[in-house]
Specification:
The chain is α/β, with parallel strands linked by helices and about 375 residues long. It contains 12 helices and 15 strands. It has 2 domains: about 140 residues, Aspartate Aminotransferase, domain 1 (Alpha-Beta Complex), CATH 3.90.1150; about 240 residues, Aspartate Aminotransferase, domain 2 (3-Layer(aba) Sandwich). The structure holds pyridoxal-5'-phosphate.
Length: about 375
């Protein structure tokens, strides 16, 4: 029996339709999209069509959509591009951002920009007024708040950010929407967001493809310089086949989002209720299970006294792929910066186990996952 895969926030398996499309394209003799011969023109047409389809699926104008090499690159182009355009103005983000955002802030700080990180409450939510106060404090040129957290699944109050920033109307708002895309509805333009980053491999598309949405009129100074592709924002030869496959994954994902969302919510509640019943001291990190402000597909579970990495390794041996929510440094689990920001102590911040559902997760997978988790938790406890 193959292992159960509940690690879609790490990466989601390639969808079969996307795989078939990709293989066909890889065999189809595509040239460099900048070449004028027939193979080049075919590749250019593929990219133009992929952009049109991805933009239509996202509900944005195609000239606003930049293809990138993934979520990390989209974030770096947005944050460092905005920082370079804004001169000495500051950058603000939350403490629980993905390392791609925190890393971009580090680079901006090394280049002399003032940066501020805003804390979150015990469930992971940021207060828009605290964000605004930090932005005023460093005359922020850009504020970055993730749409949803990859470890604990809290969904941030994006709609309240622009009103809170009313005294700073020219401060750009970026959101890392890598985990939110396809899982919750987004109204980026309606919420007054200027820049948003996405990644295809969280949706059953290929790894190595992302998108950056740049609202019309927003000026970025490209951190990468080269051949001028993607409006000069992401220079480099375009991988036409990958981009076309990614656009298909996006269309499929957004087409089934409403249905998937309610299916995942039901399954996640069932998983948590079963765990809570059979492992009495298990804790749910992040928003409460009844809180509407949570990703429908993500649970972060703590078993006091059990290290998340050891738990994830034992689960792997027993046939369940899930993640320790914390980063892994030189073989030992570092405490998760997200769980620490919630106020958990170092031991508990090492203990998070992330279970994340996706396009091919079945009710049977979840039932077996609970059985495996229950058994492994009992045996780890017995050997302590
Ligand atoms: N942002 C978040 C919230 C993520 O979860 C990830 C991936 O784990 C990224 C950014 C980076 O995306 P990519 O792996 O496409 O570079």
């Amino acid at each position: 029996m193959s292992a159960i895969y509940l690690d879609h926030n790490a990466t989601s398996p390639l969808r079969p339709e996307v795989r078939a499309h990709l293989i066909e394209l890889l065999d189809s003799e595509l040239g460099n999209p900048s070449s004028l011969h027939a193979r080049g023109r075919r590749a250019r047409h593929l990219i133009d069509t992929a952009r049109e389809r991805a933009a239509a699926a996202l509900g944005v104008h195609e000239t606003e959509l930049v293809f990138t090499a993934g979520g990390t690159e989209s974030i770096q182009i947005a944050l460092l591009g905005a920082a370079a355009a804004a001169g000495a103005r500051g950058l603000v983000a939350t403490r629980i951002e993905h390392s791609a955002v925190l890393g971009a802030l580090e680079v901006a700080a090394e280049r002399g920009a003032p940066t501020r990180l805003v804390g979150v409450d015990a469930h992971g939510f940021v207060d828009p007024d605290e964000v605004a106060s930090a932005a005023r404090g460093c005359a922020a040129g850009l504020v970055s708040v993730q749409a949803a957290n990859n470890e604990i699944g809290c969904v941030q109050p994006l709609a309240a950010l622009r009103p809170a920033l009313r005294e700073l109307p020219d401060t750009l708002l970026h959101t890392d929407a890598v985990q939110a895309l396809g899982r919750i509805p987004l109204d980026l333009a309606g919420w007054g967001i200027d820049l948003a980053s996405f990644s295809a491999h969280k949706l059953g598309g290929p790894a190595g493809v992302g998108w950056l949405w740049v609202r019309r009129g927003v000026e970025l100074r490209a951190p990468l310089r080269g051949g001028g592709q993607e409006h000069g924002l992401r220079p480099g030869t375009e991988p036409a086949a990958l981009w076309s496959a990614a656009a298909l994954a996006l269309e499929l994902t957004l087409g089934e989002q409403a249905q998937a969302r309610s299916r995942w919510s039901g399954l996640a509640v069932q998983i948590w209720e079963e765990i809570a019943r059979s492992v009495p001291d298990a804790r749910l990190h992040g928003p409460a299970i009844t809180d509407a402000r949570r990703l429908p597909n993500t649970l972060n579970i703590g078993l006091p006294g059990v290290d998340g990495k050891i738990l994830a390794m034992q689960l792997d041996l027993a046939g369940l792929c899930a993640s320790a929510g914390s980063a892994c440094a030189s073989g030992s689990a570092a405490p998760s910066h997200v769980l620490l920001a919630l106020g958990l102590d170092e031991d508990r911040a090492r203990g998070g186990l992330r279970v994340s559902l996706g396009w091919n997760t079945s009710a049977e997978d979840c039932k077996r996952a609970v059985e495996i988790l229950r058994g492994v938790a009992a045996s780890l406890r017995a050997t302590r």
